[in-house]
């Protein structure tokens, strides 16, 4: 992930406050696939503010949560059985064969995948498993005007400012799965959408955590904030009069799963 940490450096607080919460059903799919013999240790990579690590800590005795961004780690949830650290996903520094489960939330597309999958194989126990999930552009079901406003922001104003890596999210990680040289069993699962009821102000906070928005603002500090225009169109689409008015936001959710890691040669 070297070279991409700067994209999330300046909006760490927005990321921690406004990113959607992953549904419990996602973790059930992961645990059902993994069928782990024990829940001693999990490793959460590109942990950000520790959103996934906090959930894993309810299941595992110990969670190691690593990220390259010190700013993100400063925002992380602190729990007694979570150990946070500063490291890349490709070189974790975690002892070999020590982890039952490796997880990655909304970050697999940033990694050097050949090096990363070798590192996952190195740290996993023989019966361990791997799970990486992500979510695509959100939508507002049944409101074409609100969706059009979001599309104009995402692919219009901010379109040129997205990293090419972000486009891999739009393919729902198809083609990013580890090959047969890495794991004995691999699958990609398209899950039910996750949703959240968000106020207008919370939605704007979430959109402000986008890396393309941060890049746009850095490069064009004198131009109008594009979120102001979006907010006006969004409120008009729903007939909202207050920034505290709420609507349900939906995100397509998907996960890559793997187990039976092959020993490194």
TrEMBL record:
Keywords: Methyltransferase, Transferase. It comes from Coccomyxa subellipsoidea (strain C-169). GO terms for molecular function: S-adenosylmethionine-dependent methyltransferase activity. This is S-adenosyl-L-methionine-dependent methyltransferase. One of its GO terms (biological process) is methylation. The keyword Methyltransferase applies. InterPro entries: Diverse_substrate_MTase, Methyltransf_11, SAM-dependent_MTases_sf. Gene3D superfamilies: Vaccinia Virus protein VP39 (3.40.50.150). Belongs to the methyltransferase superfamily. Residues 43-131 form the Methyltransferase type domain.
């Amino acid at each position: 992930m070297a070279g991409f940490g700067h994209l999330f450096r300046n909006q760490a607080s927005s990321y921690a406050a406004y990113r959607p919460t992953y549904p419990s059903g996602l973790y059930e799919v992961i645990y059902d696939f993994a069928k782990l013999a024990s829940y001693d240790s999990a490793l959460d990579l590109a942990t950000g503010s520790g959103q996934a690590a906090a959930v894993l800590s309810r299941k595992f005795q110990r969670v190691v949560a690593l990220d390259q961004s010190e700013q993100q780690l400063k925002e992380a949830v602190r729990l007694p059985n979570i150990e946070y650290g500063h490291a890349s996903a490709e070189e974790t520094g975690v002892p070999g064969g020590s982890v039952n489960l490796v997880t990655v939330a909304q970050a697999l597309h940033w990694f050097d995948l050949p090096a990363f999958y070798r590192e996952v194989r190195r740290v996993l126990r023989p019966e361990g498993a791997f799970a990486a999930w992500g979510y695509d552009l959100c939508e507002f079901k049944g409101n074409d005007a609100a969706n059009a406003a979001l599309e104009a922001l995402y692919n219009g104003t901010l379109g040129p400012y997205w990293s090419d890596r972000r486009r891999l999210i739009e393919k729902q990680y198809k083609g990013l799965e580890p090959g047969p040289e890495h794991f004995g069993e691999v699958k990609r699962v398209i899950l039910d959408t996750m949703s959240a009821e968000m106020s207008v102000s919370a939605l704007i906070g979430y959109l402000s955590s986008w890396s393309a928005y941060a890049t746009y603002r850095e490069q064009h500090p004198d131009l109008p904030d594009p979120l102001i225009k979006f907010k006006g169109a969004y409120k008009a689409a729903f007939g909202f009069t207050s920034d505290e008015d709420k609507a349900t936001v939906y995100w397509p959710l998907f996960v890559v799963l793997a187990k039976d890691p092959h020993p490194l040669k």
